[in-house]
Amino acid sequence: MTLMTTEQVAEFLDVKVERVRRLARENLLVAKQQDDQGEPIFDKDDVEKYKELAQRLGGI
């Protein structure tokens, strides 16, 4: 399992960091844990699956 920070996810999805935080709050992108500052950390496989699904539905 490869973990990604909020910033890495934002870059991968080509969105702002605030958008990633909102996706996590709304449980559309589920965080595996939190870092020392309380920021969510995501599993790369989950992020890739989310991106694929979002693209099928018309975009992120």
Automatic annotation (TrEMBL):
Domain of life according to the entry: Bacteria
Alphabetical list of InterPro entries matching this protein: DNA-bd_dom_put_sf, HTH_17
Domain (Helix-turn-helix): residue spans on this chain: 3-52
Protein name (Swiss-Prot/TrEMBL): Helix-turn-helix domain-containing protein
